[in-house]
Amino acid sequence: MVGTWAAGWAASRRTPPPTKMPWGFFIEVAGNAVETARHVLPEADESLVRRAAASVTAPRTWMKTPAEPEDIEPWLPRGWRTAYEETGHLMAADLTRTNPVAPEGYTTTVETIDAVLHVRVRDAAGGPAAQGQMALLGEAAVADRIVTEEAHRRRGLGRYVMHVLGDHALDAGAHLGVLGATDAGRALYETLGWQKHATIAECVYGG
């Protein structure tokens, strides 16, 4: 599941595909002010964490692995810090059809670009209200960048976007949904039947 999440994130963000490393996956990230690259470790093994961390020389390189952050913090060498504020949640769900209807006053566009679904919701004036995307990886699909604009929150748009993405992913042949959630996002996804499979500890070098 961690490998699926890494591959889907890379596809969604239009980065090069993950490179297989002895400890997991490496993703090069361009044009991002807070992240130059990331290592994604499917297993929080001390020797693997130490090897991955020791390989890094570029500032703002992140390392993400399924673990509680306090458990891996003692394994990090000088120059690394545990980003407790960025701790995530690896979640998954069996996709089911919902046939969602847009809330009154909103319109929706859906397009697929390079195997990534993009859903955009606009208000009556044509302004952006919510959006989300989902990378299609065969039988799995990885949700990413689910955002509702501040002025349009608490109107069910996040739920609606997730349902639209799920239905279109099913049409494309996907059956499993995977995502990495923030604390706030986790609360929404759990109401939609998504289950947490692991805490994602996040660490950054020189950032």
Radius of gyration (Å): 18 Å
Number of alpha- plus pi-helical segments: 5
Structural class: alpha+beta
How is the biggest beta sheet arranged?
Answer: 12 strands, mixed
What is the approximate shape? elongated
Separation, N- and C-terminal Cα atoms: 27 Å
What count of domains describes the coordinates?
2
Poorly predicted runs: none
The total beta strand count reads 12
Helix content: 10-25%
Q: What is the mean pLDDT?
A: 97
List keywords for this structure.
elongated, Aminopeptidase, 207 residues, single chain, alpha+beta, 5 helices
Describe the model.
The protein is α+β, with helices and mostly antiparallel strands and 207 residues long. The chain folds into two domains: 2-89 and 200-205, no CATH class; 96-174, Aminopeptidase (3-Layer(aba) Sandwich), CATH 3.40.630. 23% of the residues lie in helices and 38% in strands. It is built from five helices and twelve strands. It has helices at residues 2-12, 46-54, 69-72, 157-171, 183-191, and strands spanning 19-21, 24-28, 37-40, 61-66, 80-82, 88-94, 107-113, 116-122, 128-137, 140-148, 176-181, 195-205. Strands 1, 2, 3, 4, 5, 6, 7, 8, 9, 10, 11 and 12 form a twelve-stranded mixed sheet that branches.
Topology:
Elements: H1 2-12, E1 19-21, E2 24-28, E3 37-40, H2 46-54, E4 61-66, H3 69-72, E5 80-82, E6 88-94, E7 107-113, E8 116-122, E9 128-137, E10 140-148, H4 157-171, E11 176-181, H5 183-191, E12 195-205
Parallel strand pairs: 3-4, 10-11
Antiparallel strand pairs: 1-2, 2-3, 4-12, 5-12, 6-11, 6-12, 7-8, 8-9, 9-10
